[in-house]
Design a protein that fits this description.
The protein is α+β, with helices and mostly antiparallel strands and 211 residues long. It has one domain. The protein is built from 4 helices and 14 strands. The chain has a 5-stranded antiparallel sheet. Strands 3-4-5 form a 3-stranded antiparallel sheet, with no helix packed on it. Helix 3 packs across helix 4. The radius of gyration is 16 Å and the shape is globular. The N terminus is likely disordered.
Length: 211
């Protein structure tokens, strides 16, 4: 049992048609020197500054996105300080469009590229999670953050209810089967990364990857 699960998780066994919801990719606004492995960038929409990290051949945001879309983005328990730590929670359709120019919501295959680089899904969660119990529930098994990704457990929101802050990290991917969206999850009591299908009205965290 993975912690305090209060959403219906449907494990992916076979999906006949997978599509991506991504907006058109645009790399005009943010240029990152190829030799750099980490740094910061500014979201020109609201002036927020984000850490980024190069992992393998990909460049990922090293923080959860915290861009307020007014509609369909939620602060956990409506406490503003939570947004500063864990970012905001977005439904699937909003997540597809919310990344800054020059970045996009990663597909499930881009997540697989990440986890393969880190030794496979079974071990990658530990290498992605922040390596402390400051924001993760004890015991935060396997957490080393050796990748620099610093995954944080922002929980989820669904129809007015919030759940799993500090125990579970959910990240939307851009992949879907036209009915359900695919998301990635990490747990406080395990070191793996899993992927599941879920109702697109659920609101999860977003990590963007560079175009």
């Amino acid at each position: 049992m993975k912690a305090k699960i209060c959403i219906l998780l449907l494990e992916i066994i076979a999906i006949s048609v997978i599509t991506s919801c991504n907006k058109e990719e645009n790399d005009d606004d943010i240029t990152i020197p190829i030799e750099d492995t980490s740094g910061t960038f500014t979201d020109n929409r609201d002036g927020k500054i984000y850490q980024w990290i190069k992992i393998g051949n990909q460049i990922w945001m090293a923080e959860n996105l915290n861009y307020d879309t007014i509609n369909e983005s939620y602060v956990y328990n409506n406490i503003s300080s939570n947004a500063n730590i864990y970012g905001l929670l977005y439904d699937f359709e909003t997540a597809c469009l919310v990344c800054p120019d020059g970045w996009h919501l990663p597909s499930d295959s881009e997540w697989t590229q990440l986890t393969d680089y880190l030794g496979g899904e079974y071990l990658a969660g530990g290498k992605l999670k922040e390596d402390s119990t400051e924001h993760w529930e004890y015991p935060n098994i396997g957490a080393t953050n050796s990748s620099g990704f610093t995954a944080l457990p922002g929980g989820n929101h669904y129809k007015g209810s919030f759940c799993n802050l500090t125990s579970l990290a959910y990240f939307w991917t851009s992949s879907n089967n036209n009915i359900w969206g695919i998301f990635r999850s990490l747990y406080f009591d395990d070191h793996e990364v899993t992927n599941y299908l879920q109702d697109k009205e659920y609101c999860f965290s977003v990590r963007c990857v560079k175009d």
